[in-house]
Write a structure and sequence with these properties.
alpha/beta, 2-enoyl-CoA Hydratase, Chain A, domain 1, 2 domains, six-stranded mixed beta sheet, four-stranded mixed beta sheet, 11 helices, 41% helix, 16% strand, globular, Enoyl-CoA_hydra/iso, enoyl-CoA hydratase activity
Length: 270
């Protein structure tokens, strides 16, 4: 499939999705939003893909919604059916909404944040499984400066990542923070020099694709995103069920075999 506003490439089991509107700092339009969802769903279904990298072309990751579209955006668009379709009918409804489909993707998503991540750009990074930042990255919620609110569930997810006080600060003040502060408060997992970011993201992607079981990664990603809605007993019960299935899996057999035989793993992914 060809895309108008992003680049999509698969190489060595890694799908790289690059938002490609550098002249507009990769600001979201309805076309880009739709293409991004299509690309992530395609990567999720592709058996040749084991991990996904999301990044931006030029000097920005994503500067949020394109202001030209925001000015004429109908208020009811926020709940339009086209954005709320199900990604995976076996997942909670919480993960079948406009941006929370990121957690429903069966492959880990790595946001390689190369520059500004504001508004919806920050939300996409938060819904990713890993956040690696260039030392030139800048973060802002921006909503309060536009007369908006904490949209798309950011009031739920941001405090779980950076804590209540930091979330209150970032949301209510709309102030910008640099990559160093983002690292200090736990907003990002790692900060690297700008020219090292692509390699750092690919190294992580390759580790997820080659060194560990894709089946384990898929199930554990689901466990971690489902756990906030579960009691401890529910989490244990679900884990016990999944453990039985994992012990019967081909990846478990390979996990034992490559350890005993002292060779690199060759996980089939099932």
């Amino acid at each position: 499939m060809t895309y108008e506003t992003l680049n999509y490439a698969v190489d060595d089991a890694v799908a790289t999705i690059t938002l490609n509107r550098p002249e507009r700092m990769n600001a979201l339009t309805k076309v880009l939003e739709a293409e991004l969802r299509t690309a992530i769903e395609a990567a999720g279904r592709d058996n040749a893909v084991r991990s996904i990298i999301l990044t931006g072309a030029g000097r920005a990751f994503c500067a949020g919604m394109d202001m030209d579209e925001l000015e004429v955006l109908p208020p009811e668009d926020i709940r339009a059916e086209e954005w709320m379709r199900s990604y995976d009918m076996n997942r909670r409804a919480d993960y079948q909404t406009r941006y929370s489909y990121f957690p429903a993707a069966p492959k880990p998503i790595i946001s390689a944040i190369n520059g500004a991540a504001a508004g919806l750009g920050l939300i996409m990074a938060l819904y990713s499984d890993f956040r690696l930042a260039s030392d030139k990255a800048v973060f802002a919620t921006a909503f309060a400066q536009r007369g908006l609110i904490a949209e798309h569930g950011i009031a739920w997810i941001l405090p779980r990542i950076v804590g209540h006080a930091n979330a209150m600060d970032l949301l209510l003040t709309s102030r910008k923070i640099d990559a160093q502060e983002a690292l200090q408060i736990g907003l990002v997992h790692q900060m690297v020099p700008a020219d090292a970011l692509p390699d750092a993201a690919r190294q992580l992607a390759h580790r997820l694709g080659n060194d560990v079981s894709p089946r384990s990664v898929r199930i554990m990603k689901q466990q971690l995103w489902e756990a906030p809605f579960q009691t401890l007993g529910d989490a244990i019960s679900s884990a016990n069920t999944e453990m039985v299935m994992s012990l019967r899996s081909e990846d478990f057999k390979e996990g034992i075999a490559h350890f005993v035989e002292r060779r690199p793993a060759r996980f089939p992914g099932n």
